[in-house]
User: What shape does this take?
Amino acid sequence: MSSPRSGNWQNLRVPVNRVPRRLRESSAHLRRLNLTAVQANARNELLEKIRSGKWVENQTACPVCGADGGRVIAEIDRYGIPVTTVICKVCSLIRTVNQLRESDYAEFYSSFYRSLYDGALHASPKFVDEQIVRGRRLVRIISRHIDLDGKLVVEVGCGAGGVLRAFQEVGSQVFGCDYGEEYLEAGRRLGLDLVRGGISEIPTGIADVIVYSHVLEHIQDLKGEFDEIRRVLKPAGKLVVEVPGVYKIHRQYAGDILEYLQNAHLYHFTRQTLTLICSKFGFSEVWSNQHVYGVFSPDNDVRPSIRARKDVRLRPYLFLCRLSRHFLRALTQLLIRNTYRGAQS
Assistant: This one.
């Protein structure tokens, strides 16, 4: 991979030394990684693909407003993988600017994703149970806005199908797709109807509800995906989206944005930017919140209002997260030193 100081990097218009040191690749960060043998092997193979040039990165524009570059907030992810994350200066969408080719991502998801993120090649009972719990929470939230009884719910990127099992429990018919065959087999053992592949494998006009639970942030071709969603949905169908919320970094990651970032996540959403994305591609908001959950309907007349939707709180929030993380780390070190001195006295 080319150096971030050369080539198209200059189009970002942000000096590299403006990026906080610990959000750049460093041996200290790598020493803090606590990876299983499966994760370490997947990470090393993935890095070799990038460094050897077998996987090719290209700089991309913002899918909402078309702006190039942005303000760089990190150059690595939680695993120390080179990923340049920027916040758009126009619409506030946080995204990966150096994205791989579609064929490279296809290989990543079929050969590396589960090994790196779950640390296992097969779906464990714990993983399936966690999916079911997450699915029940999602059902409780969206059932206030959608009648699920007897409806056909299709989940894209269903993993082992635990989320679909929760919909099945409340009377929905279910169908799912994913690229991980080993995980699909775990779902099939639960009696779920699951196929290998993406949304293109699903017949036209069959779905009352389409669910993207922690999946939309992985999608590279958003326009193509939303076109497919519209194809598969019935005219009165609903799109349900659940994504990791940026505004939960302080709660779920103790303010550490580096723990939040993942190379597989190409976009990082707030309620505002998720609504912008959906309206950009023809879906109007029925309901959403800042956690981030949302229900959307196909709407040919909806138009995104970038100026009205720009989130002016986002940059200060990220700054305060970084500041709080430094403070907590310093406080912890102080407490450790005082405890050690007390033990020696």
About this structure: The chain has two domains: 7-119, 125-254+265-308. Confidence is low (pLDDT under 50) at residues 1-17. The CA atoms of residues 1 and 51 lie 5 Å apart.
